[in-house]
Amino acid sequence: MKTEKQFVRRSRHWLLAGVVLMAGALGPTSCSEYDLDKETPAGWGSSIYSWLDEQGNYTNTVRIIDDLSYRNVLGKTGSKTLFVADDAAFERFYANNTWGVKSYKDLSESQKKLLLFGNMIDNSMQLNSLSSVEGPIEGECMRRFASNTPYDSVMVLNAEQMPDNPYWKRYKEANKIVCMGDNSTVPLIHFVEKMLEMKRITNEDYNFLYNYTTNRKAGDASVNGVQVENPNIKCSNGFIHKMEEVVTPLSNMAEIIARKPNVSKFNSLLERFCAPYWVGEEMNVRYNDMYGTTDSLFQKRFFSEKSQNGVALNMSPDNTPVNGLLQFDPEWNAYYTGNNDLGGNVAMERDMAVMMVPSDEAMEEYWNNGAGRVLKDYYGSWENVPDNVVSKLINNNMLTSFISSVPSKFEDILNDANDPMGVKTEAVDSVWLGCNGAIYLTNRVYSPTAYVSVSFPALINETMNILNWGIDQLQYNVYLNSLNSYYSFFLPTNKAMLEYIDPCSYGKSRTQLYRFHYDPTKPETDRVWAGIFNYDVTTGEVLDSIGRASTDQVKNRLNDILNTHIVIGNVEDGKTYYRTKGGTEIRVNNVNNGAGSMTVEGSYQINEGSPLVVTDIYDQTKDGNGKTYILDGGPILGTRHTVRDVLASDERYSAFLDLLDGTGLLEQIHLNRNACGGDNISTFNTYHYTVYVPTNESIKAMQQAGKLPTWEQVEVLENAGLLAEKTRDSLAIVNFVKYHLQDNSLFIGAADESGDYETALINPETGRFHRLTSQLDENGITIRDEGGNTRKVLTDDERIYNRMAREYQYDHIDKTQAGRIETTSSAVVHLINRPLLLIKDPIEN
Questions:
Q1: For 669-687, how does the pLDDT look when each residue is reduced to its tens digit (9 = 90+)?
Q2: Angle subtended by helix axes 109-117 and 2-10, to nearest 10
Q3: Residue 803 in contact with residue 749, Cβ under 8 Å?
Q4: Which residues contact 593 (CB under 8 A, 6 or more apart)?
Q5: Running DSSP on this structure, what letter comes out for residue 676?
């Protein structure tokens, strides 16, 4: 025990050594000599210990077993699998190893435990059975826990060995911390034929993983990077697999990266996200009992979305929020991909991770001449780049599945925008195998698209972190980071987000205002909150506070804001109206005058407010995907006006409004479930529409000619008991109105567009919607109906065309109790010269 204690206190290096890679071609492994169905192998009656002792060339392993008092287990009882090397392999190990041992007498008790228990499985398994998981299911397993314990990696670190970040400061000053790498057991990695075959890992992939020091053939197998020389030696209490070299436990990815001097720049960024955490009372007591100490025991962990047991680690040891999370914890030995819905250790056994780590030279080139230059220009040094920005770079180089990240599958590796990353084998200089994943040493930096996308200003500028939080939480980062599209992104500052008029209040007696705030002291998922205030739309006065929005409400409103602030396309192409991602339309003016003069308006600003001035413009077109337009005066807002509100606002729409009011197409509650913000058109469904309104004179001419009934005539028929006639005429009016409601909103001043568009009217003979052929160009909008009649949108007065409406549905049947926007539809209203018909116009002819 004294030897163990001295080793723990005095060691200056982590005990878990890197993978042993041996040069030269390795021969195939054969199991035919030990086909248990045909013959009994030599040594069948011997125990594992007896067989090793009898051979005479395994004296190092036998001495380790004796020294650790494990002879009775391996000599008489148990069911074990042991990966062993002969004495010749140990001599090669003593001549060249990372532990600094030159002979058997130099081995500490801890090192002996690593060599024995780190190469032992508590089950009796032939080589091919290693690929099986519970079931059994063959070909699924590539890792499994050995018989070692987390306490085997405990170290006493001095100040030099500790990461350089504030979380380690107090221990650096004390020049000591007793710390294990991770409190989970270190797994063995084994590549055997059935697993490689099932996971479609080719021989060329395998050779790549071992830096082309191998020339794999069918049947070859390895454990922790060491080739199996002679498998399936059957003993009475298990199996022995003879290895070509001494197998040492693998370090995890974080520790391998920390030890490699040629990736120090990347490691300095990575280790910003780690901290020492106390292991807890139970583990601490057990450790002190084992080694006779009174130390506080810590473990090194990384802030990440997925850490031990698959749970996020997003709070510091002092229980304060952290600024930026990694995809996963690279220190977590038992890392698994996906959800642990398989139970037990099965998820861990099936896969591991990959990290692409650029060399110092690659990082230098990236910073000075590559995509990282934007960071250099903005921050000046890596030290000044905030953690939440650095995390984007690291996360883009963290691949969650090793199985999906071998060279034969490189073309399927996606970046942070779900676009092909373009990884090539020539970009990987070396591979280092860890117990929880493979590290690809790269000669280039795979930059996150977040650094060149239109969302970049929100990421780097603290005055815009409300929308940046929304982008991350609502996963708009993948959308906005895509380099396959051009975006115009209107980005409200935190100041602008104090002026959000809540659409959910459009159905209430008082209009309400959301004032969004960002609180960095809160956990990542709760950093944005909003106060709710009554608001006087007429005077712009903010009245009494009525409470705070829930996190769900905050995200719901931010989702609506993001949808209405993103345009797919260039808003500087000379047009005026542009459709947003959410299907609403915005109006953009004074583009040529640039920031300070350029304006944008949503339907609220057009109908009830005033234009918003673009205060700054970020041009991301060179290497990125568009331009970002900063709004400081407020966010783009949707109007409270429904289509009916627009029709009621101008007498020139009155004849059509009279028809609409009697159709039953207006609703206050949609499908008896969602309350509406006003009188919504029931045929609208989360889309954008055009409403064509014939002039009063043209409608009245049809009515006077007996070609279109009036509601008064329908009432007369009902009072006279002529129900069939009443139904006929009612349906004629309803169908007339429906045929004037077109899918797709067409705005004069938008990009040219034409096509056959469906209306709200179904043809009972075909079961399909009747259509209109509409053409939008620089001359306006021309519509051709199914009767062959041609109509024009009237443009002699700007108040009779391009009139915007938006209709909301809420999450409650009572609109006064609405808490969130369930869905919205938007529409544009145009006055046209004559009605749209299914037959040739009898009035014109």
A1: 998 789 999 999 999 999 9
A2: 90
A3: no
A4: none
A5: E
The position carrying tokens 């995890």 is 252
Q: Find the angle CA(745)-CA(751)-CA(755) to the nearest 5 degrees.
A: 55
250: helix, strand or coil: coil
Distances (CA, A) of 163 to 166, 280, 318, 329, 711: 9, 22, 17, 15, 81
CA 729, 734, 735, 737 torsion: positive or negative? positive
* Cβ neighbours, 10 Å, residue 705: 10
Structure tokens at 108: 């500490």
pLDDT in tens, 64-98: 999 999 999 999 877 999 999 999 999 999 999 99
Whole-prediction pTM:
0.82
In 226-352, which ranges are E strands?
226-235, 238-243, 274-278, 297-302
Picking from 276, 259, 239, 120, the residue whose alpha carbon sits closest to that of residue 187 is 120
As a whole number of angstroms, the distance between CA 476 and CA 807 comes to 24
Helix (H) or strand (E) holding 768: strand 768-777
Please name the residue ranges forming H helices in 643-722. Answer: 643-648, 654-661, 696-704, 711-719
Burial of 94 (0-12, 13-18, 19+ CB in 10 A): middle
Tokens of 661: 């009011």
Cα gap 467→636, rounded to integer Å? 13
Q: Tell me which residue of 622, 263, 303, 302 sits closest to 445, measured CA to CA.
A: 263
Peptide bond into 136 cis (omega under 30): yes
pLDDT digits (tens, 9 = 90+) for 233-286: 999 999 999 999 999 999 999 999 999 999 999 999 999 999 999 999 999 999
547 DSSP β-pair partners: 532
CA atoms of 558 and 183, how far apart (whole Å): 40
Specify the amino acid at residue 216. Answer: R
Helix 696-704 with 654-661: angle, nearest 10 deg: 60
Inter-CA distances, 795 with 370, 569, 650, 782, 803, Å: 51, 26, 15, 12, 12
- Report the greatest alpha carbon distance in the chain: 115
